[in-house]
Every structure is written in structure tokens, then in C-alpha cells.
Amino acid sequence: MTVWIALFRGINVGGNNIVPMKELRTLLEGIGFSGVQTYIQSGNAVFSSSETSAEKIRTLILKSVEEKFGFTTKIMMLQRDELEAAVSANPFPEGEADPKMLHLFFLGARPENTDLAVFDQWKKDSESIALIGDVFYLHAREGIGRSKTAERAERLLAVSATARNWRSSCKILELAQSV
After folding, report:
1. What pLDDT, on the 0 to 100 scale, is given for residue 113?
2. Lower CB density within 10 Å: C or N end of the chain?
3. For residue 31, is pLDDT > 90?
4. Of 34, 55, 82, at which residue does a domain stop?
């Protein structure tokens, strides 16, 4: 069995695309996944499956969410070892002390343009960025709420993305390691 992490984008935000986590767990169990666990209301699910294709799992989940909840969303699929690698590769260990300031953007694909100089006009001096594989790291020491880098990351990288702060990334990994 493969341990999978599904990172939903844009659910339970601002009163839109509401998905109660209990119902999400039931839905995922109903389509054949085992050991299903969720973390906070922003759409983080961990489960086991004999299916080894991320695309097949994503398609099945998206179809089921649309049928049950009436909307479409994006989902980034990771295997447990991919999340372990992303957490281990953190280029900003000093950011771990304030986990709300360190974000991992999980990308739908590796960006074709990996020249991070495109961020220079938006990046504050207090921000550090790195792209390692298909994870974009942002250490925003003044917070992410007003960060132009965070706001523009997906567009500048030209791939779909969903971000999780350091605390959430570690907690999701902890859940994945328990499945």
C-alpha cells in the first residue's frame, strides 16, 4: 500500500467550497482508501491505497468531490516519501522557530522557468526563497499576509500550487507516518 497526501486548494476559504472534514473522510473511505485522516479545515488528507498513480487518484477524488459537494477544485498529490523529502530539504531551518512565517508551496509540476530572479521586483529584503524540485519555499519573516512574493508565486512560476506553513507541513507528515 502506498501512503498518499492530498492537499486540496481553496476549500473552506471565505465561506466558499465548504467541505466538512468528517464528510471528506467518509467520501475518501467510500471510494476505497484506508486509514483516512484529515488535518485542519483547509483540506489536508492522508490515506493508503493500492493505486500507484497520482493522476488516477486525483481524478477519482475530484470526480467524487464534484458529485458530492457540487464544485471542482485543485488537488496536489504527494506520496509520503515526497513530503518527507520536502520537509527534509528545507533550506531555511531558521524559519522553523516561527512556523507561520515559513511556507512550502507544493507545485503541480516542475516549473519550466526556474530563474527565481523574476521574483526580485516583488520580494522584500526580509524574504528568502528557494525552489527545490517541485516545492517552492518562502520564508517571509514579516508574515505572509502582505507578501507580494506569496501572492504572485503561482503566476510567476507558471504552475498550479497550494501552500502550507511549516507547522501544517510537519503535522501532515506526522499523520502520513502513522498510516
Report:
1. 81
2. N
3. yes
4. 82
pLDDT digits (tens, 9 = 90+) for 81-91: 999 999 999 99
- The string over 44-56, giving b where at least 16 C-beta atoms fall within 10 Å of a residue's C-beta and e elsewhere, is bbbbbbeeeebee
pLDDT, mean of residues 89-96 = 98
Find where cell 523574476 sits. Answer: 118
The answer, as to whether pTM is greater than 0.90, is yes
| Identity at 117, one-letter amino acid code | A
CATH no. for residue 119?
3.30.70
Question: Could you give the percent of the chain with pLDDT greater than 90?
Answer: 84
DSSP bridge pairs for 19: none
* Cell numbers given for 4: 498518499
Spatial distance between the Cα atoms of 139 and 101, rounded to a whole number of angstroms: 6
Full domain range(s) for residue 52: 2-82
Tell me the C-alpha distance between 48 and 157, whole Å. Answer: 30
Q: Are residues 119 and 49 in the same domain?
A: no
